[in-house]
Design a protein that fits this description.
200 residues, mainly alpha, 6 helices
Length: 200
């Protein structure tokens, strides 16, 4: 299995940026100077590398099983870190966090089911990537909207629009995920090809 490929290294760098972002975003709660602009910069870089690792994996023919794990893992960790930071700073409501976490819990259960059946990891859908993109754009804008600068209210409004749209797509992607699972795992009493399993 190829490990040190260019896309995988980019994904590893993205993962390394998660605690950096979380520390920067939570500095105001620690009585330190606000560093939200730097926190947003880390998120922006994660978004750029998210695009690059997928593009380069296809372009350089370096798609790997590790990459299929690292890429969505980095997406989930950045989303989780952002939710934690914005919730602790009272910038987003708890109900939104609960909804997104519940959705990811269902996704995780699906992953366990697929692996137990011996299937390969499911492909990340375009809708799911679009949802993540909207959230990764929306949350930083909401964070910027909490700072004091002339266009803060615009950032806040646009950010919330992206967050709500991304959250909607997030749940639509869940339906596509269920369709993939349904196509892989036969229903009880069925085997591949739709035929009934033989009775003992």
């Amino acid at each position: 299995m190829r490990i040190l490929t260019v896309p995988n290294v980019l994904s590893m760098l993205r993962l390394a940026g998660v605690p950096v972002f979380l520390w920067l975003a939570l500095l105001p709660l620690l009585g330190r100077d606000n560093q939200d602009l730097w926190a947003v910069l880390v998120l922006a870089l994660s978004g750029i590398t998210d695009y690059l690792d997928g593009y380069l994996a296809r372009r350089l023919d370096q798609v790997s099983d590790l990459g299929r794990i690292l890429d969505p893992a980095a997406d989930r960790l950045y989303t989780a870190a952002t939710l934690v930071a914005l919730t602790l700073r009272d910038l987003i409501p708890v109900w939104l966090v609960i909804a997104l976490v519940a959705r990811d819990a269902v996704m995780a259960a699906g992953v366990v089911l697929v692996r137990r059946k011996g299937f390969e990891p499911l492909q990340v859908s375009f809708v799911g990537k679009s949802a993540t993109f909207c959230l990764m754009i929306g949350f930083p804008l909401v964070l910027l909207g909490s700072t004091v600068f002339p266009g803060a209210w615009v950032s806040h409004a646009v950010g919330w629009g992206a967050v709500l749209w991304g959250s909607s797509l997030y749940f639509v992607a869940l339906l596509f995920y269920f369709r993939q699972i349904a196509g892989l795992v036969p229903a009880p009493g069925q085997v591949a090809g739709g035929r009934s399993a033989p009775r003992p």
